[in-house]
Amino acid sequence: GMFASVYQLEDENQQWAVRCFDKRLSDQQERYQAISRFILEDHLPFTVDFHYIEDGIKCGDAWFPVLKMPWVEGESLESYLGKIYREPELLQKLRREFQLMMDQLRINGAAHGDLQHGNILVKDGEIYLVDYDGFFVPELSGKKSNELGHHNFQHPGRSENHFGPYLDNFAAWLIDFSLFCLIEDPQLWETFSGGDECLLFRRSDFIKPDSSALISALKHHRSEKIRDGVEILLDLLRKPLEEIPFFESDMSVAIELKEMQTQGDLTN
Ligand SMILES: Nc1ncnc2c1ncn2[C@@H]1O[C@H](COP(=O)(O)OP(=O)(O)O)[C@@H](O)[C@H]1O
Ligand SMILES: [Mg+2]
């Protein structure tokens, strides 16, 4: 998100993350309470329970809302990847975790809205999501999105009007494919400055794929699976966000996508 700062506080029992808001959005309380209810009830292992407290912190004479959640002793996805990008088994485990998480979000009709290196924390190889500003839950259907997510992870066509269970579909394919690329070829992390506000791909790669050194390197990669994967990614970029299929860990979907694309090529 863009409207908050996070503090680590401790009481006798545990560490807390307390998120203070710089400004108040019109439907803020309603939104966060809907998201909080969903997360408190969802029993998903990768969400962190939080409460929205309307009168959370007093500044001068005025009270401001805060979010309170347990502090996750983890590190950001980019920091973790920076350590393990040469260890295919750990990468594979992480990718599997990520896929299971996306399956669970899909099954529950929810979407995070800002999947990116800073909002995905890793602790003992397990994934935790933080930053629920842009989270979609079924109760919020019909609203607009109050943020657009990190530009290096989102479909360039995303707007405030995109708000539904499909919201993460591009970012999920992108993150999964980025992890796959590193498993196949860890050197990509160094060559393309992975971890600098991104995993591997940046917005410029999405907007101008024809002049992207990364896209070109992947198109000519020795790994056939990387070559196929980058064609799928380019195909996703040509679709409107709402038409991008749900990410499914079942690879048959990737193959279907590839077939769809081949047909497209024939008719174009
Ligand atoms: N519950 C938490 N446990 C540990 N770290 C957290 C937690 N919540 C936030 N953080 C850290 O604070 C950073 C900023 O918090 P976040 O909620 O993403 O706000 P924003 O992106 O709006 O600054 C996160 O990237 C993460 O490193
Ligand atoms: Mg964040």
UniProtKB/TrEMBL annotation:
One Gene Ontology molecular-function label: ATP binding
UniProt cross-references to InterPro entries, sorted A to Z: Kinase-like_dom_sf, Prot_kinase_dom
Span of domain Protein kinase: 1-268
UniProt organism field: marine sediment metagenome
Protein name: Protein kinase domain-containing protein
